[in-house]
Amino acid sequence: MSNISASRSRYNSWGDRIFDTLNVIFMLCLVVVTLYPFLNMAAVSLNDANDAVRGGIHIWPRMFTWENYKFVFNEATIFHSMFVSASRAIVGTIVSVFCTAMLAYTLSRQEFVLRKFITITFILTMYISGGLIPGFLLIRDLNLLNTFAVYIIPGIISVFNMIVIRSFIEGLPEGILESARIDGAGEFATFIRIILPLTVPALATVSLFVAVGQWNSWFDVFLYNSSNINLSTLQYELMKILQTTNTASSSQSAADAFAGAMGGVTAVTPTSIRATMTIVASLPIILVYPFLQKYFVKGMTVGGVKG
Amino acid sequence: MENYTEPVIQTSRGPKAEPAGFKLFLKRLMQQRALVLMSVPFLLWLFIFKYVPLWGWLTAFQNYKPYKKFSEQEWIGFDQFNFLFTDESFYRILRNTFVMSSIKLVLGFVTAIVLALLLNELRNIFFKRVVQTISYLPHFISWVVAASIVTTVLSNEGIINVLLMKIGVLDSPILWLAKGEYFWGILGGTEVWKDVGWNTIIYLAAITTIDPSQYEAAEIDGANRLQRMWSITLPGLKPVIVVLLIMNLGYILEAGFEPQYLLGNGMTSDYSDNLEIFVLKYGIEESNFSLATAAGMFKTVVSCVFLISANSIAKKLGESRLY
Amino acid sequence: MGKKKLVTIAMSLFIAASALAGCSGGNSNKNNETSASQAPASSDQPASVEPVTFTYFNFQSRGKDVMASETTIGKILQEQTGVDWKMEYLVGEEDTKAGVMIASGDYPDVIAPEGQIDKLLDAGAFMPLDDLIEQYGPNIKRVYGPYFDKFRQADGKIYFLPYSADQGYIGDPNISQGAFWMQRSVLKEFGYPKVKTLDQYFDLIRQYKEKHPQVEGKDTIGFAVFAPSDTFYNIQNAAVHLAGYPNDGGVYVNMDTHEAKVVAGTDDIQKPWMKALNEIYAEGLFDAESFTMNKDQFMAKVTSGRLLGYFAYNWQIGEATNNLKTAGIDEKRYAPLPVVFNENIKDQYVDPPSFVNNRGVGISVDAKDPVRIIQYFDNLLKEENQILVQWGEKDVTYSVDEKGRYFMTEEQQKNRDDTNFKLSYGFQYFEYGWPRYGSNSLLADGNSYGVGNQPEVAASGFTDGDKELLAAYDAATFSDYFSDPDDRPWYPAWSINLGQGTPEQIFTTKSDDLQKKYLPKMIMEAPDKFEATWAEYMKEFNKLDKATYEKTMNEMIQNRIAGKW
């Protein structure tokens, strides 16, 4: 970063200034467009549900209330499910990133005799799937139903992430591994002591991918752990709440033509709850990114090697 | 541990290239046992979790009923494939799938790379981080919510129509979502809006690997901002771009179904129906798992064709590649 | 419109309080006596009340997972039987859930499969109940006896207990189904005119829009149909109602010949409806966003006061009507109208008494103790417990006046409408999804089984505006100025099981797709192009295998008429 400030004078040509101004204007437009949906959800979630039906709420609530949040957090299971979600995000990310990086390292080694075979075998699995039911039966036969492990084990390796990390390792300057070998370090030690620290930006990136995936996933809860409330995740519990309000507000399906049509007013609506759960579910995970950003510092990798 | 006397070049050909060298292969394997230990367990994992369930492919040739034992299933040959390929709408659906995922691929790549380059040029680190964080927010909005926002924006009294009428481009509002010919554009735009920030992350990480001394050198040569972006940052990103491109080409038939389902309607179905919606309609909803499997196999074949072609093109061009 | 409905007869009789036994409730009354006298048919071997917990899974997302004993109703039932339930409700996608459940062959003790019932029956997930009912089910026999033949499966056995075994009949005083709704200010403006035909309906909208081109600075919207892809059936069904038929799914059935015909592509049903919409679209009265708006947008329109009329099912937009009601501006609310094509047609918006034989709850083959479960079911079907699951406890969740009529105080009504209360008390879990009386049943004491059908409850919910409007139309309730439903022994034809992946099923999917594509096009085209588009649509439509579908539907309907369900 020091070199940027040192050469500041060079940047200040007219062309550069115009470029900078346009760039900032563009970024501001981008911020407006991408921030809107979130502010909109926040406003709807803080607005009286019955009033929100009228529409027209943009970024500020019209009739402020905490009711929607009370409704969501009234659910005793929410806090436990947050804990489960956080656990699977943390454990899942650590396990997956470590394993994926290790595999990526071995596959980055040009001289490894199994390299091509393993690489292709892994890549193929990105595009093939035996289908839902065979997958389910496998998990059942492995006795992974109703376990926490089912959140972690099937996702140990992400091929996509593996490729990303491998590309990074391959992009490292040649000399690094050489020097490690001269030091007489073994493969595993090289991986831990040299490769991991040098690929931090890549690891931070894939950690984010894995953590977001883990945090947001509900389909595996639905398939494998739906009857074990202790292993339920936040997204799944929020979906339950949403579906409850859905049914309550339109309790008259064609086969169920009675009750409730008396104009009763429920405190929440599916729309307000959906907005609330968007905020509740995504705020924690969104906050992870700013934390990871400090690992995306220009020149860190190579600079580290040089130093 | 290992001391490699042999040059790297030899091994890249793989063991089978020299049948006489099976012993050599074993010897190397022994030499590289640390690497073997670090990778082969995952191969085992892969086999169990990804390859074992492939028996499911056989169900594409059956009238599969989940409650029957595998041996009791009724074999029906290629009926599912026939149903898929002979449906009169199949080619339209295939076209839509290709077009939509190509749009997504091209737009997704170009916008994410451009945004990464521009973000990289921002001088204020704090502002840069704020923009990054905000730009990835829409990724966390479910498609239901995103589609709802898009529908509102594009409605008769939505901001797009209002703006266009104010600046005099339109006399009366256009019903954007009712016109099939706009659908691909709307979908592409929505996908970019939702995921451009998210897709940028990987390029921002890749930019960190570029050696800062290159920029210094370029500056001394008097290169301006655009020139530096073009001749240093972009080439620095090239390996990542190429690898991601090859990987994504394998997903050419995966256009998703949620946005199409939520933004499409009968009036746009000639443009919005894709393979996944077809499978949903005639497969999943009808509990016809065999059809879904058959469609999945078809997709795999297409994926492999694209993947192998892209990879060998990359190889010929001397670019980085997937395998 | 002065025709008196069953409901009104029933109501006046009940208020007279004495003659109730002679009315439509007679059937249930008699049955109730029998059950009261011989309730424990197998009392020589008293049912065990040892504590036990079973599992229950419902494919409808009615509630959150809960132990039955954590709800008031579940607790009371547990005290009676010793049985507790671990109740689970579907979250996510039902087809997948059913597929996985079937593939694993691991079933909960009791399943309420909703739309997945055919798959589970196919898979042999349910155990036959005949012997159990014979031995342990006096109340089951009382409630379901008259209907047994309607839900026996092909092998002659009973595998599940449906939800719609009506004991007597009382109609819904409100219109909660489909109708042509009109903003009350329009009706008021023209002095509450009689609106019978579609022309009259559109004419009122036309005149009102001319007089009031804007509402609060925004353009008035004439008429909309809530018909995006997932509720497209609204625009399809409206035509059937206009022609004087109830919603029978994709067909309408001639009352004399009992011949079923596909609605799509009919010159006398679908075409005039499309033509009418095409005309009002050209005049600027039809909301072009009918097919693209989502539910939130439609509800915003309904609550904005700008929309003069719409066709939709009331339960689709409950939040919007609630909002209007709480806002307290009666003129901006909507009144249902039984609109038909011409004066000679008798409207059929109100569903005929019907027996839905493809929904229900059954005991799975994996059930640990089917005897205890069937005893629980039987106990649940005792009249007092049926009152418990619908009305709750006397003086707690409902009150009884000096004439024995059930009603709810304001407080009780408020609770009954509160989702959280419904969950904690257990209404949400027990009023549906278990063996039960049909929703239109009458209790032995003449009160309505379903809370919403009780005239007293409906009346207490009427606002002054409601009363004014009802008085203007000389009606006691909203359903009062709709025609009585004719008896249709096959009804509802939409519950006919067409099987999976059959030519009939594929016809339905393709024909829906075609209509989704062409109907909006037809409406929004210039009037002189209408005929050409219709012809193009028919050309495409005639390519489909309509004959097979019609043939099957006719066979099934004939079977039902003959009592073979």
| Uncertain residue ranges of chain A | 1-9, 250-265, 299-307
CATH homologous superfamily of chain A, by name? MetI-like
CATH topology of the largest domain in chain B: MetI-like fold
Q: Please give the radius of gyration of chain A in angstroms.
A: 25 Å
Q: What share of the residues of chain B lie within helices?
A: 55-70%
What series of H and E elements makes up the topology of chain B? HHHEEHHHHHHHHHHHH
Name the CATH class of chain A.
Answer: Mainly Alpha
Number of helices of chain A: 18
Strand content of chain A: under 5%
The coarse overall form of chain A would be flat
Largest interface: A-B, 102 and 99 residues
- Which structural class do the helices and strands of chain B define? mainly alpha
- Briefly note the structural class of the backbone of chain A: mainly alpha
- Low-confidence stretches of chain B at least 5 residues in length (pLDDT < 50)? 1-16
- Overall CATH class of the largest domain in chain B: Mainly Alpha
Radius of gyration of chain B: 25 Å
SS elements, strand count of chain B: 2
Explain what the structure shows.
The complex is a heterotrimer of chains A (307), B (323) and C (565). Chain A has a single domain, classed as MetI-like fold (Orthogonal Bundle). Chain A is 69% helix and 0% strand. Chain A is built from 18 helices and no strands. In chain A, helix 5 packs across helix 16, helix 6 packs across helix 15 and helix 10 runs antiparallel to helix 13. The N terminus and C terminus of chain A are likely disordered. Chain B has three domains: 31 residues, no CATH class; 42 residues, no CATH class; 228 residues, MetI-like (MetI-like fold). Chain B has 15 helices and two strands. A two-stranded antiparallel ribbon of chain B has the order 1-2. Chain B is flat. Chain C has two domains: 266 residues, D-Maltodextrin-Binding Protein, domain 2, CATH 3.40.190; 204 residues, 3-Layer(aba) Sandwich (D-Maltodextrin-Binding Protein, domain 2), CATH 3.40.190. In chain C, 42% of the residues lie in helices and 10% in strands. Chain C contains 24 helices and 15 strands. In chain C, strands 2-3-1-4-13 form a five-stranded mixed beta sheet. In chain C, strand 6 and strand 7 form a beta hairpin. The longest helix of chain C is centred in the C-terminal third of the chain and has 22 residues. Chain C is globular. The N terminus of chain C is likely disordered. Chains in contact: A-B, A-C, B-C. At the A-B interface, helix 3, helix 6, helix 7, helix 8 and helix 10 of A face helix 2, helix 3, helix 5, helix 6 and helix 7 of B.
